[in-house]
Write a structure and sequence with these properties.
Helix content is 33%, strand content 21%. By secondary structure, the chain is α/β, with parallel strands linked by helices. Bound molecules: guanosine-5'-diphosphate (2 copies). It holds the Pfam family KH_dom-like.
Length: 456
């Protein structure tokens, strides 16, 4: 066997599903104009920061990767909202709530020259309840004189105010030291690579009004088996345990689904952050589509995001009670044309309103999860490739015929195949291989990736 298994370390280079790095998250909260953005710029060093795009309607830039003393972490600037009709107090309460849900450390910024306001007090209430580590930045302490003003912020009752001047960079090193001290040693957030244990994690995804909260209510309510609302834990304050098909499932970010304000949906900043965070923690996404409505750009984007994140997928066509013969005809064509990227996903036609086919949801989720964690033994895989290469060899190009020499499944969750080849395989041939792998081994409901390593 001539294959050098050390070559597997090349995997990093072309990971098809580069999962978002599981870095500790620092969320920045505070009233408008206290200097949050200025401080974030200071923390990320005003370089062109590596910026994560988050899935959602827009590709807003909301989180940045920063590093200090050799440690990397993600900074989320939660200041992306505009005070609207709900008023400042309500908006900031939402901002703070979200920050504590997402963050490992909350950086609370107060304007020392203004002092403690009612809104600051309200934020403190929320931070206290969440029991997440909080670092208090007393900003705009531009000179010695302002130090006294900073000291007045002890009055908030959440520990020592760290005097900083985001504008002039004063003592921001001390602030960063403090943030690192407050950070957990290892990022505590669950990663998808983790061995399964405890309830499987399901996220309900879909654009506004497709019926996510209706489905959640149906699932939790109908079976009368809401086991527990997981509240107040530092890890997952927002999930719900629901018993279905004799098993307990963890539904991710049900708080976000239940309480989302109708007028606040869509391209909403928080919706984007929540979607990102829910997807990161989920193993499988049930993507809801409104079957009564033409497929939208946004539906496809959501499907894309889930696949890119490497999560298992179930497609749920909701509002089936509204689908008639004619609509059905067009729907089949839409799916054929526009959802080819997820043609391997199990599909259930449900109605959260009437309860139609609710019982089909769990088997579909189980199928997808099983595929997601499935591993094809190397011997079996290579027998498959031997047969494939002899029955369907790669076309000859420039007098050469690249061959698959050896194949191995290098990872699961999601499955990742590595082919060692004697030359470059054309994309068309690689797609053919992927299709044949699915035909042979299934993988219904899971994205898979096929990468090649050319051996000269
Ligand atoms: P945000 O709304 O909390 O993100 O606040 P910004 O970062 O946009 O800052 C609001 C205003 O405060 C801007 O005019 C900043 O230049 C100013 N500012 C921010 N930090 C400081 C500081 O440390 N000292 C002073 N004097 N002004 C600051
Ligand atoms: P969300 O924004 O995705 O959480 O969607 P909602 O659960 O709030 O549902 C949006 C609207 O669609 C509400 O008026 C629901 O009553 C309605 N709806 C949800 N599921 C169904 C369904 O299966 N059939 C019908 N006819 N209406 C539904």
């Amino acid at each position: 066997d001539a294959v050098d298994f050390d070559s597997l370390e090349y995997l990093e280079e072309d990971e098809a599903f580069a999962p978002a790095p599981k870095l500790p998250v620092v969320a920045v909260v505070g009233r408008p104009n206290v200097g949050k953005s200025t401080l974030v710029n200071r923390i990320i060093g005003r370089r062109e920061a590596v910026v994560e795009d988050v899935p959602g309607v827009t590709r807003d830039r909301v989180s940045y990767i920063a590093s200090w003393n050799g440690r990397n972490f993600t900074v989320v600037d939660t200041g992306g909202w505009l005070p609207d009709s709900r008023g400042l107090a309500a908006a900031i309460a939402e901002q703070a709530q979200l920050a504590v849900e997402l963050a490992d450390v909350v950086l609370f910024v107060v304007d020392a020259t203004v002092g403690i306001t009612d809104v600051d007090e309200a934020v403190v209430e929320i931070l206290r309840r969440a029991k997440k580590p909080v670092v208090l930045a007393a900003n705009k302490v531009d000179d010695q004189k302002a130090e006294l003003e900073a000291a007045a912020l002890w009055g908030l009752g959440i520990g020592e105010p760290m005097p900083v001047s985001a504008l002039h960079g004063r003592t921001s090193g001390d602030l960063l030291d403090r943030i690192l001290e407050a950070m957990p040693e290892e990022a505590p957030r669950e990663t998808i690579g983790e061995a399964p244990g405890g309830p499987r994690r399901v996220a309900l995804m879909g654009r506004p009004n497709v019926g996510k909260s209706s489905l959640l209510n149906k699932l939790a309510g109908e079976k009368r088996a809401v086991v527990d609302s997981v509240a107040g834990t530092t890890r997952d304050p927002i999930d719900e345990m629901i018993e279905l098909g004799g098993k307990t499932w963890r539904f991710i970010d049900t708080a976000g689904i239940r309480k989302r304000h109708k007028e606040n949906q869509g391209a909403d900043f928080y919706a984007i952050l929540r979607t990102q965070s829910a997807l990161e923690r989920a193993e499988v996404a049930v993507i809801l589509v409104d079957a009564s409505d033409p497929l939208a750009e946004q539906d496809i984007r959501i499907v894309n995001n889930v696949i890119e994140a490497g999560r298992a997928v179930v497609l749920a066509y909701n509002k089936w009670d509204l689908v008639d013969e004619e609509r059905r005809f067009y729907l089949d064509r839409e799916i054929e044309r526009q959802l080819v990227l997820a043609r391997w996903a199990p599909r259930v036609n449900i109605s959260a309103k009437t309860g139609r086919h609710m019982e089909k949801l769990v088997p579909a989720i189980e199928t997808a999860l099983e595929s997601w964690g499935h591993r094809v033994p190397t011997g079996k895989l290579n027998q498959f490739f031997t047969d494939l290469v002899s029955s369907h060899p790669h076309p000859i190009r420039g007098g050469k015929q690249p061959r698959v020499l050896f194949a191995t499944q290098a990872a699961t969750r999601p499955p990742r195949f590595v082919l060692f080849t004697s030359g470059f395989l054309e994309p068309g041939y690689r797609r053919f291989i992927e299709r044949r792998i699915r035909e042979e081994f299934g993988f219904e409901g899971s994205p898979i990736s096929v990468t090649m390593k050319i051996r000269e």
